[in-house]
Structures
1.
Amino acid sequence: MAGWKRLRRGLLVISLAMPAIGAVAAEERPFDACAAAAASQFETGFEDIGRDTWEIDTDTAIAACMAALEAEPNSAQVKGWLARAYFAAGDRDKAVPLFEEAAAAGNVVALAIYGDMLTTGDGVEVDMERGAQLLTKGAEAGFAPAQNSLGLSYDFGEGLAQDYTQAARWYRAAAEQGMSKAQSNLGLMYQEGLGVPRDYVAAAAWFERAVAQGDASGQVNLGKLLQDGTGQPADPARAAELYRLAADQGDMYGQNNLGFLLENGIGVEADVEAAAELYQQAADQGLALAQHNLALLYEDGRGVRQDYKRAIELYRQAAEGGEMRAAVNLGLLYLEGLGTEVDYDEAIKWTQLAADSDQPIALNNLGHIYENGLGVTANRQTAISYYQRAADQGYQLAADNLARLTGPSTPSTGKTKTK
């Protein structure tokens, strides 16, 4: 592709010395307009005019690239750009055939975006193996978005064997070209010690590079390191600033994390009402943890009017989204009849769901249920087994309950709420 572009520019220079200069300039103009509207900044030769997909003015780009394709119907690059414009406009039906043609010709834009579409099932049937094949071709051609996406495929084992070393390799290749998402992803690999040695200093350095470009994931990830003081002195005030930057971009993790700091007055002045608003914004985007956090506020009446029914609704959404702490709390509301009638079946259902993931508070609460025969036949040994599993994880209340049942003592409740 780079050779073709060098050759094409060479022909243009030669043509400038020929009598037909006006015709040649007119022929080139549609291609240039299409490039200016739809090229990626990571394409060789288009670094200064390229843009991210979400920054494309789709109407302008589609019109320009349709004109360019009419002038050069066999140009894989123009097909890739036109497909990218359709993709940005949400028109997968028109984008896919163009991506197919452009990818078959080795166009890096098509290889990257269509590879992602196949991997995630975005507008096409999922085919992770083919997606990985296309991403590999784009990555090996040096295209940063394909390199970052191939890193993700290796990271999560999508379409090829999971390999953290290869994931880190491809994240690094894209990060070194200045791709902020890849910089953040590489930082996470250092933070977690996946494919590279665990190194919090290196993680923070890569996050800082992403932050310098205004990347929301970098802002959130660096903020979390600073909030927790991981590998460096804690700086909750800067963490709050970073979360706010991400939240202002609509990032649900930034919204949730800033909400947590505001709720608890960490690094900022406490403002539970503002926290509730941020949790709501993140919950509306489907973030289970934010749904759980907002449910807690509704249950306790902090920052919002107390509303057990709303808490139940949010806990259910969060639990269905995989937040097991929400399943624990939902089970407790049914067990205690708060916002609903006492319903042992529902209480056991949600508590068991969390216990199946080895959540220690859920295990403890199941022990309480079986010890007291709440909706089940009382069974001391089953209660002891649940208390034991929770105690083995260091959960003190379960250890106390276990000691009470296995030694001389009087019964006490084993319930607790997780926050």
Note: The two ends are 55 Å apart (CA to CA).
2.
Amino acid sequence: MKNKRKIIIGIIIGLLIIGIPTSVYGYNSYNYNLYYSKAQNDIESEEYDEAILNFNEAIKYRKNNSEEINEQIKLIHDLKVSKVIYEDGLSKFKEKKYLESISIFEKIKEEDEKRYKLSQEKIYECKKLYININLDKAMKLSSIDKKYLEGLDYVDLALKVNPEHEQALKLKAELEMLYKDQHIYLAKKEAESKNYEEAIKHLDIILEFDDKYERAIELKPEYEEAIEKEKAAAKAKEEAQAKQAAQKNKVTSEKDTSSKESSGVNYQEMLDKALGRETLSIPPYKDIYPVHGHEAIKQELKNLGFSFDSNETAMFEQGKIKIGIVKSGDSWQLATKRWGRNEETVFWRVMSIIWGREIADSNRIYIDYALSMPGSSHKSPYIIAFIAENALRVRVFTTKQ
């Protein structure tokens, strides 16, 4: 009996020895999983401090997993920093400080999957808004204020963010052309007033900006030559005046024919000859312009020197100067295959007859555009200028388009 009791007690002790560790392991495993799961849920809901507390509780029940838990805690610290950075980026975005916002969002690492994706979307949005703002400023400066160089500065700011932005590249090319053409126009205006040195200054501005711009390269030697011709003409005039003075001072009782001829020197003819240019013979400008109506315009064109071979077609011819004009609907179209100072004067006079001096002056630039860009037409409410069949053609409207 005693032996039987001993056996039973031994069995019970054995079962206790086996069962107690099993129960402890189960208890620890349950609590580890419980706190680990809570920590993961805290991370998902961005309750980072709570997540750290739950991970620290979990590690108490499974110390062998301390390395994994420490990595999770390190990740939480990184996520806390990432959240602060992201919120700072949002703050700058709301203040419309897009470049600062971009530099902040770029600090978000891929480990923070949620905010990394959001940051990339915000970077794209910031770039788009920043580019649009600068392109709008550039277009306003160029279209309203004609400040093409300042406009280009804003385009360059946009291109720093996206060097391949199609609209920005197209606008840059347009503003560069307008800036150069603006100074070509100013150079030609100075040249018309014989201010060739000032004209050359405008050409130098262009060549500093674009040293291969053909129109400026072509005009500069022309203006330099004009300066030399003016010097030569001035010298010739001085010599002629000196000769005339000498003849007047010559006391003689005889009125000799040679002295009469010398006293009637045609200085304008000498000046044109010295400058190597044709003399244009047209009546002086009238302050009655503009005139209205077909017959009134036709009569002024006749006064200017146009010969009509029908009611609607005429030709202006003086020496090498040949300019045709035809009435077509609501416009008179001028055409010439040769372009120079005299042709430009005739075109300007026709525009003045129809629209007056001020509009004629402001619309000359469209003729310059047509000459420098022969593949396209250039239009205002008053004229259209273009190259066709190897001739410069300018339609001067008689009513606004």
Note: Residues 294-397 form one domain.
